[in-house]
Records
---
Amino acid sequence: MARTRFVALALVTSFLSVVAGQLRPLPAAGLPGDLFNQGIASRLRTDRDTTAKASTDFGQMVRAAPEAVFHPRAPADIAELIRFSAFSPAPFPVAPRGQGHSWHGQSLAPGGVVVDMRSMGRGHRAARINVSTAAGAEPYVDAGGQQLWADVLRATLRHGLAPRVWTDYLRLTVGGTLSNAGIGGQAFRHGPQIANVHELDVITGTGEMVTCSRDKNSDLFFAALGGLGQFGVITRARIRLEQAPKRVRWVRLAYSDVAMFTKDQEFLISNQASHAGFNYVEGQVQLNRSFIEGPKSTPFFSTTNLSRLASLGSRTRVAAIYYIEGTMYYNEDTTISVDQKMEAVLDQLNFEPGFVFTKDVTYVQFLDRVREEERALRSASVWEVPHPWLNLFVPRSRILDFDTGVFKGLLRDANPAGVILMYPMNKDRWDDRMTAMTPTADEDVFYAVSLLWSALSADDVEQLEKMNELVLDLCARTGMECKQYLPHHTSQDGWQQHFGAKWGKIAELKAKYDPQTILSRGHKIFPSRAADVVGVATA
């Protein structure tokens, strides 16, 4: 009997040891051992499967494994992790990761800890989505930084409300888009998403939890919005809302003349047209070879429509066909008036006669339109492939030069897989106190041009990266003064040129809010303090 009890006790002890090992992971060689004695240690994972999933991003252009992945239950857990690193003799990088939708390793943390923002529990106050509709006050939503915009949409629509500006893809986190800017077809009217934020909760690089706004801790507020994660982790945002429509009249208008295309786009975003015109304005460029070698139908265009567009390209002998994409929002009781408004706007435009393509969809169907394309790409196994993207803001005065040099020049005989976006925004809807950059040219309008490539082979990756370099070189050689959106630079000199006159202030705020430079090092904006120390010791 005694022997039986001994064996049973040994088995139970062994089981508990295994469980304890799962709850409190083995220390990682590159992290301070004391980290695994902290109260948050049970939420760290160091196993290879977990770290491998956090070793790349949507772009799949860079691979770099973290030492650990952290699964916080609440913002206070993140603050404790950052505080430990910041005051450790050997500070390690910490990178928040929502959907990992960066494209060149910006959300990675080699040698450090990736924070899985999506793991925050739904029960915590900051993890919920709370809509305020107090009488006499402007409605707003408080959303945790880890929340998907798709979930914010669902929560606000229950109150008949919605945020004013949307990115084209809704499976992105609130904190992720606000750390960049958050642009889309509504930005010409309301500015980017960062211009529609009233208040933030931010965890700084010293582990301090700070509530900030335009009137309170304003330097951190403006720094964090568009700040590429350099000054803190956004854990809550208070976002302005408006009445949500029920339906959307959605049109695409085809052009063979880029000058007419840009003229009409600029008219549509002007004060003259925006009051009674489109609620959303974007544009696309389709290279002629893609009509022959690309898909024969899309979620928007039927096979017949694409055949007609291909004939237009062949007949006009142009390098590309351009589309204005616009919408008008309406409700069931305003169907007649939206028909009249649409006709009045179209009468003022110069698209190719007969090349108007219209769809009528619900508001949700329109905002979540890329989801349908995602499903189609996933089914064809071409969603999770490398994405060597290049996003640029081009001054209005140089957009025709850009078209000549890139679409009619570098890309004339190319047919890369992907989408090309090209649409204007009003500069006065952006707040220059925020970190996000726009072209420095003294012009009222600039263009977003997005080369959203998908590399279907290893050769494609090399060729598309080389093409992006040629585009950037063209911009530099011809003095276009473009700015990268979702920027990637390989040197601090590149970053100083990117930020221009803002650089001194940005460096000052970095020293104040992240003095050990532990946050979001994947951007490679600031060298780590550890590297500085090593350099001094070596010297």
Note: Residues 55 and 361 are 39 Å apart (CA to CA).
---
Amino acid sequence: MGTAQSREDRITDSESDEGYEEEEEEEEEQYDDALSDHQNTQSSSSTSTSSGGNTPKAKWVISEKLTSYSFTKENGDNDENCWVLEVGTKVRVRVSTEMQLKMFGDQKRVDFVDKAVWALKFLSDEEYRNFVTQFQNCLFENVYGMEASEENKVKVYGKEFIGWMKPEVADDSMWEDADDLSSGSIPVKGNRELMEEFEEAANGGVQSLALGALDNSFLVNDLGVQVYRNFNRGIHGKGICVKFDAGGSRIGGSPSSSTPKKALLMRAERNMMLMSPENEGKPNATGLKQVDIETGKIVTEWKFEKDGADITMRDITNDTKGSQLDPSESTFLGLDDNRLCQWDMRDRKGMVQNIATSGSPVLHWSQGHQFSRGTNFQCFASTGDGSIVVGSLDGKIRLYSKTSMRQAKTAFPGLGAPITHVDVTYDGKWVLGTTDTYLVLICTLFTDKDGKTKTGFSGRMGNKIPAPRLLKLTPLDSHLAGNNNKFHGGHFSWVTENGKQERHLVATVGKFSVIWDFQQVKNSAHECYRNQQGLKSCYCYKIVLKDESIVESRFMHDNFAVSNSPEAPLVVATPMKVSSISLSGRG
């Protein structure tokens, strides 16, 4: 990423980058020259090939004025047959989402990444569409290990999800009917945005970010918990650090455990739960420690136990989107590979356990389910009313009502990539899943047999399920983000009040924080979606670029959105620094 320093600590717009538009115009001229040289050629697999460089200001260079492509099957890393795309003598790449293939139907062109950014321009619309169809069929087979037939697609997606395998026949009415931004909000589109940024040292080794909706927010690093004061323009360090025990006992599951990777605020944000992995490389923990933020002391070391046996948890979260504000909160949710449950810090009689008399107290498994078969849960989140969304290794996203954790009300099929993080809006109408190479945005709304509009958390969605939308980086930005950098931590902006709508989405990849306008993504007439085949993909976003890999990017609570602003400040944490960025709606 050293080549991208010209964009360091700036916010760029994927829609209005003038340099990129100029390059596209020059590139069109280059393509026209190439095509005029070969206007009589009728080869069914002829294209012109251009390659891009490794910097934001790189120019397109004609690689081959006339070339050919082919999809061939070859043995992969695990001796499995997989489809490979070959273009002339320059490109040979496994067909996958890591190519970040982007379609330009009006230009009969596709761009993709393979060690550099490549563009293919086709001689006819038919040839372009044939290529896209072949690519999508090969991608399906590489992902699912079966031919992309109608029968196999039904096997993978299910009859109810016809819109997922045939987006052109999907019912998009729910996207259109969904509530727009509240009347008092300021849309980002059409406003000149002023990004104000300041940053502070974070004392190194930042592992996680815990934003508060009240007075304070927190960074967990190798030394302890750093305390920050919340303001309308961001967070400022208070110079206070709750240090970990110096005697070798770290906050987490055991004396030998690593630095906490998960911090959860509770009880009106006066307490914090800290959870450490039991073994390096795996997130699962055997317990957690409860810290009193006001005194800076560990008040309880909790163990996870069920039916007398020690168990692990890979993640914890609050019962609802706003329950961390409840001063009497005594329960929270837990997730493991095959477990979904609620933990209660009170004993079975409802009494708060006393650490002085109980030794190492055991959390009470108040409700939940231990699944016998491999669900491979990875991540979860809760809505404003306590409904739960769970993401899995196989890409499935399950919706559970607040009254039952035993069986999902709705299970969305996977698109082939594991879900590494999941979030949901306060009202439960929208779910955001994070994969390594894209985000998937799902509308949970449906109309029941009585004509009432409900969410998939409260009932089975039937056969008119809206197709999801994908949020992706352009091939150039994906290339600049780095080969080994993956999307992580996709979040909606943060509201905890009925009637308020989240306005932005943010995710992190490498040194980039990527921000999408939620209303723009929901708009079916958005220009990104024109001339696309397959699921609609949105490429319009803003990038905040830092000088080191970003640990986490989160919007502050809606309480801290100033007047005439489209959003509360964005907080970006790197291992060494924490930055606050304000989005101004001034015209």
Note: The CA atoms of residues 158 and 413 lie 8 Å apart.
---
Amino acid sequence: MKRSSPWRKLAEAEDAVNRAVAATRVGRYFKLEARKSSFTKELRAGAATFLTMAYIISVNAAILTDSGGPCTVSDCTPVVVGNSTAVPGPECTVGSNPGYEQCLGRTKSDLIVATAVAAMAGSFAMGALANLPLGLAPGMGANAYFAYNMVGFHGSGSIPYGTALAGVMVEGIVFFILSAVGLRSRLARMIPRNIRLATAVGIGLFLAFTGLQAHQGVGLVGASPSTLVTLTACSETDPATGACLGGSMRSPTFWLGAVGFLITATCLARDVKGGMIYGIVFVTVVSWIRGTAVTVFPDTAAGNAGFDYFKKVVDFHTITTTAGRLSFGGLRHGNALLAVFTLLYVDVLATTGTMYSMAEYGGFTDGAGGGFDGEYRAFLVDAGSTVLSAALGSTTVTTYVESTAGIREGGRTGVTAITVAACFLASLFFGPVLTSVPPWAVGPSLVLVGAMMMRVAKDIEWADMKEAIPAFVTMALMPLTFSIANGIIAGLGVYIALHCYDWARIAYLKASKVLDERRNQVAASSAGEASGITATTATAAAADEIPDEFGQGIILCLEKEMGTGSG
């Protein structure tokens, strides 16, 4: 009993704190008692949510850094040729040019701060304004589309970084307006359900494929001149072709990443809270050891500079290169407008769908109309957070499914989301640590996020080929063309083509029904007029055979009854 006494006192103190907070204006505002929650329970829920989504800080920054950010050829170190220096060409952005690598390092530091600030602001607003236990951060899927489809690897795409950021901001503004006028949920319902489900599956496959590649993953798959892709995991690669030098499956970093994959997968399988981050932490810590084959700090100029920055551990970094890099002029081009539409489409589907599912999971829905408490403000918050994120240099902000971890812990109010925001605020002071997370630590999490997104595939109507074929085209083309936009456009196109006959037939039947009704109305009206004239004539003839004093009265009565008379 003595051993349990301290725990009893701790529990009593916790109950006292919970009762005190619930009785304050803050407790009443957040409806702690009404939602059968408590202050300390909300704090634990917020910590659980943050642990499950903290990976996004390094993962989002790493993915967006692959776009090159604001780095260009002008940042490359001049090439020494004999006794003179030459201006490097575009090839310097795909090699190991020291100047370009340093620019990428600055960009990654900026994007870590941008990710944390966007997540902090979005989560705080969600808790304070909408009073919902939902964590927000730049979304997976949209960031990959931004980095690899819009801007392209190290700026190799058709849209410059500044123009792409402007597109994200425009999409956020449009999304905010749609939310403000109430069109957001209606637009989400207009998209065929099976296409919506297939889009989530396709994005999952896209993320998994990204995590298996070398630049942003474990390097298990790579290019092949004969089969397009093949098994790699090379210890060395040809910088020009990407082909293995010395055989495949010999990369030490791949095997370390595979161990991290198994750690994270085991944690997820056993429902360990924060399981997504444990594999990343293990692989990252091992990769920090210098002098090994898996170190992220090799004995090079870039490696030494990275290690010097890493040793600071605590450092508040100020954004210097990515914030405010908006260029709206390029949005006039068709490919930029298509990208904005794609981002808006994904936002309407993913963000709105996730928020509804989280509200359903937490028991916030009203049951009748499918809405939930705080819905309108929640929609405004995540749309507004996207505008802020674009201004900082990052991508669209969305509600995270990892919020279920906090809801599972008992989080029912906005205090959970505010706790998540406080944790993201603390992460701003550990930039040197977060920038040193290697891609082979991040890749396994991308694969597992893709695996988790596969769960909705079972809800697709595979027995109906008119629904199954467009869904399959949508999910297959996203990874195979390495474009989320291509999958969406192809899926919708096939869906329309397969349903054109049905829609035309329905339209024809409706038009025929309307015409038949009009024809029947005209025929009935003509028949009524003809019967009225006949009845009046017959009545007059009959009146001639009866006395005059009764004739006029009978005629007037009959005419009035049939509506053919004047009075």
Note: Strands lie at 79-81, 84-86, 136-138, 221-224, 228-231, 397-399.
---
Amino acid sequence: MATLGLFPSSVAASTATIRAPAPTGPTSASTRQPPHARRLPVLGRRAPAMDALRVSGAAEPLLFPAATAAGGHPRLRVRTHVQGGGGAGRGAAAEGDAAFSWAPVILPFFFPALGGLLFGYDIGATSGATISVQSPDLSGTDWFSLSSLQLGLVASSSLYGALGGSLLAYRIADFLGRRIELVTAAALYIVGALVTGFAPNFVVLIIGRVLYGIGIGLAMHGAPLYIAETSPSQIRGTLISLKELFIVLGILLGYFVGSLEIDNVGGWRYMFGFSAPLAVIMAIGMWTLPSSPRWLLLRAVQGKASMEDNKKKAIQALRTLRGRSASEKVLTDDVEDTIVSIKAAYAGQEAEGNVWEVFEGASLKAFTIGGGLVLFQQITGQPSVLYYAASILQTAGYSAASDAAKVAILIGLFKLLMTGVAVFKVDDVGRRPLLIGGVGGIALSLFLLAAYYKILDGFPFVAVGALLLYVGAYQVSFGPISWLMVSEIFPLRTRGRGISLAVLTNFGSNALVTFAFSPLKEFLGPANIFFLFGVIAVLSLVFVILVVPETKGLSLEEIESKILK
């Protein structure tokens, strides 16, 4: 994460833990650090490593009030690359670890992360449901004879809803707050799942899918914000990264439920409806959690709520989120520090760039990089491979629908494994090497799928191997790194609107590819459609090599000054 004018470059050689000088009198507001010396929180992203400075533990924040009995001054824990893992580095890390308890962290992470799991579940369940809903024997309806256009709409309508939900979140999220936004998302999940599960006709089915999709859009916006704003700073980046694993777990769960219901009449209803009880757990859990303390203070700073009342509410929320053992002084200091940071950040919003500034200068370069990555992430066929995994396997020789669904579960497990590899290796290996290697693997897998349908149709293991290669390559490249790059690359002035446009690009292209895959496969044939995706993957590889920079080890200011200028 960024630091704002705290250190000269010469401090990179230091290996000692830096402490504030001993006070000569009682601490007062006048002795606190000015806003420009504080590190402003950036929500919903993992903190990149700093080039010369590495913060002990997770990288948020650099300034962290130590929880001592005497209520000492904030300490700045700094570790350099040459410092290694010994001495002061370990001591600082140990102090950071002692500053929070894991027990109160679990539920404030788990319930928002269920929003991501339910998004992933929709992807996995749709894979089997598209087989069940159009089967004359298994559909259980008299409208099972769906055209390729209608089948594409079944698969993609939740993504169109997610696109609308993202637009809605941009307008109402700060008004509702993260907690109520996630409760609303859970309610839409419930309604959408039930409407879809009990749909008497195709139109009602699509309405239910769209409602569920709006819930996806709200959840994907609110979950990372709530987790970021309520997690202890030392593990904030780790928890946000683990949310990606919940999405993959949801995909795997969707595959599993699909395999259980694929041979049952009307099984698609259970596949879609199973998400309702999970959403109920999410809704109840989010309702019992406190509001984000930072959101409460933001409303007060904006003049939309009483400062004193919301400070008390924020302290009470922090007490719940940090555990009852946290002292009143530590909680009060945290709230006061957050108010100073929010005032500094909010003061800059008046000069925040408008939408059009994203297409100018450094912001245009950033949008080309970030928007290009999330666009290629989708148009290389990722939605199609996931949503139609069971169908691909069925045509690859696994004639029984249940066989295809079971192999899809294995693919989901492999996806989970490779996601874990990416989460733990991206800061060590770097962004570009993983992107180049992963996108190269994606291109190879797509050409293998094209070759299977063209000349290797007697070797079904080729299709399975190609799908595994695609999933593994995607999960170490486009999957996690695209969004990491999006969160890093935009200048502070246009970061909020730039990321918003990147989200819209992602959901829009996802829905388009998912919708177009079935009719395009019918028009071009599977061999040609996968060959087309392979060509696009080669173009995306060229894009990564020529356009995408390496941001590993750079602060946000260094990215803006060294890469975007």
Note: The chain is about 65% helix and 0% strand.
